[in-house]
Automatic annotation (TrEMBL):
Binds 1 potassium ion per subunit. This is Bifunctional NAD(P)H-hydrate repair enzyme. SUPFAM superfamilies: Ribokinase-like, YjeF N-terminal domain-like. It comes from Algoriphagus aquatilis. The keyword Cell wall biogenesis/degradation does not apply. NCBIfam families: yjeF_cterm (TIGR00196), yjeF_nterm (TIGR00197).
Length: 489
């Protein structure tokens, strides 16, 4: 899994790569620029587009100059805007690229930029090199860039955004940030959505072994990481091997949540799925998910007969006693979502009773209900880390780039998913998937890695087809295609 390192460590990462691959730092910059240009030319942007590139004196500016040179070669009309007073302080690779500005590419001061003259702005003013608060002049440059109403594409980071911390000043408001090698931590913070826009991570050929030389408990989960976590089943596998799972979900008026979680667990591969529901609601489960079984609140339930239990979707807030019964009678990790989390928030003494290794799946609102308000995402993540380590629990903090917070302190950002997933019931589907993988014998870590990534992938597939019309059931329908895409049978 890709390690997310600090912005201040990028220079060392570059140096180690240059030595390891026997290339020059100029060649590494060229590689970054080529990967950007390759991405850019695949966007639906006409060759007649007029492109403005703001470039600073550091290596971020060097990237911009190289990008400008290469885009000019592709036939784009390029106008460079320098964001410094004197040419004497350029970084060495920026200087080399400055000397290579081709004939036909205009170069002016940022002050001369006229927004009406362009179709697109590339922001390569500042990257990971920013230290401390943005200086006065830099703030003016950022405002100038932000005055452009069209598409703004940030190179590596929107200028002004610190790489690892929350930002307290105005930065470039990019529509898309194209970042090199690994996502800079601050691009993953929800409070930076208006600066980072969409995020694209481009591989520039830095081997994983180089990242391993840095200490970091933040990771980025990609499709290639999944294969190692999936179990394989053999020819003689029977439904018992695929797990017996129990979903404690649904109440009067909220049976849809139970159905979504149940269908999702079946589609994720569970052999036997039972739903614990109010007896009055038996028909709704039987008629909508005939493959599932139902048990009822008043009956004697042998919780230990199940391989995994997921609790919460549509449960209702009056199920404290039931929740305690599960905790007292089931010693293995459970999945806790939705109303189960609200019951926990109201009764914090229950934290100590949750089986070790369990998975709590709050969205930001539920996280706040459980643990209070945080000024920044980094503070929230630090709290989550301490909570997970001290209680030996796992937490899936849902949202764009869902964070899997493991009980050993590691925090893994998911890369799959799309904005169309922000619709009712999509979280219930995740509960079904996580419970299903646990029931199939996956460790909590493997269940979260496979479940969270694949949930996002199914969401992307459904979103591609249904765009903003997507509903949670569409995501369930795409679970089979997500298995196929991952090559998991
Ligand atoms: N492996 C990778 O990812 C690769 C990374 N690469 C690229 O290198 C970039 C990093 O380049 P970098 O280190 O030269 O820093 P960069 O962002 O250009 O900024 C330096 C400038 O910022 C200025 N400055 C500082 N603080 C400031 C403030 N508060 N307010 C205002 N200004 C401030 C500082 O001024 P000074 O303090 O020196 O006066 C200096 O001029 C990285 O983002 C990526 O694009 C690729 O080329 C290759 C592979
Ligand atoms: N903008 C987004 N980008 C990617 N994924 C998202 C986005 N918004 C929501 N999601 C995902 O959709 C799911 C929504 O879950 P949740 O808020 O619990 O929904 P519900 O309670 O309606 O079931 C989560 O898995 C979350 O990560
Ligand atoms: K930038």
């Amino acid at each position: 899994m890709l390690r997310i390192i600090k912005g201040s460590e990028v220079a060392t990462l570059d140096e180690l790569t240059v030595v390891h691959q026997r290339i020059s730092s100029f060649e590494l910059m060229e590689r970054a620029a080529l990967s950007f240009v390759n991405w850019f030319t695949n966007q639906a942007m006409s060759k007649s587009s007029r492109v403005a590139i703001f470039f600073g004196p550091g290596n971020n500016g060097g990237d911009g100059l190289a990008i400008g040179r290469l885009l000019h070669k592709h036939g784009y009309s390029i106008h460079l805007f320098s964001c410094f007073e004197s040419n004497s302080g350029l970084s060495s690779d920026c200087q080399k690229n400055f000397e290579l500005i081709p004939f036909g590419v205009l170069n002016s001061s940022w002050k001369e930029f006229q927004k009406e003259d362009f179709d697109c702005v590339i922001d390569s003013f500042l990257g990971v090199g920013i230290r401390g608060e943005l200086r006065h002049q830099a703030k003016n440059i950022v405002s100038k860039i932000n005055s452009f109403p069209g598409k703004k594409i940030a190179v590596d980071l929107p200028s002004g955004l610190p790489a690892d911390t929350s930002c307290l000043w105005e930065c470039v408001q990019a529509d898309i940030t194209v970042t090199f090698a690994f996502p800079k931590l601050s691009l993953l913070f929800p409070e930076h959505a208006k600066y980072s826009g969409e995020m694209v991570v481009l591989d520039i050929g830095i081997p994983d072994s180089i990242y391993e030389q840095f200490n970091s408990y933040f990771f980025f989960l990609r499709e290639i990481d999944l294969c190692a976590f999936h179990k394989t089943f053999h020819r003689f596998s029977h439904k018992g091997d695929f797990g017996k799972v129990l979903l404690v979900a649904g109440s009067k008026g909220k049976m849809g949540a139970a159905m979504l979680a149940t269908k999702s667990a079946l589609r994720t591969g569970s052999g036997l799925v039972t739903c614990l529901v109010p007896e009055d609601e038996r028909c709704s489960i039987h008629s909508s998910v005939p493959e599932a079984m139902a048990v009822f609140y008043d009956s004697e339930i042998n919780f230990s007969a199940y391989d995994s239990i997921g609790i919460g979707p549509g449960l209702g807030l009056d199920k404290l006693v039931l929740l305690e019964r599960v905790f007292d009678n089931f010693p293995y990790p459970v999945v806790l979502d939705a109303d189960a989390l609200t019951i926990l928030a109201r009764n914090p003494y229950l934290f100590a009773k949750i089986p070790k290794g369990s998975i709590l799946t709050p969205h930001l609102g539920e996280f706040e209900r459980l643990f209070g308000n945080f000024e920044s995402h980094i503070d929230r993540l630090k709290f989550a880390q301490d909570f997970c380590v001290s209680h030996q629990l796992n937490l899936v903090l849902k949202g764009a780039n869902t964070v899997i917070c493991l009980s050993d302190g590691r925090q893994i950002f998911n890369s799959s998913g799309c904005r169309h997933m922000a619709t009712a019931g999509v979280g219930d589907v995740l509960t079904g998937m996580l419970t299903s993988f646990l029931g199939q014998g996956y460790s909590p870590e493997a269940a979260m890695i496979c479940g969270v990534f694949q949930h996002g992938l199914a969401g992307e597939l459904a979103g591609m087809e249904k765009v903003r019309s997507m509903i949670a059931s569409d995501l369930i329908d795409q679970i089979p295609a997500s298995f196929k895409k991952l090559g998991v049978e």
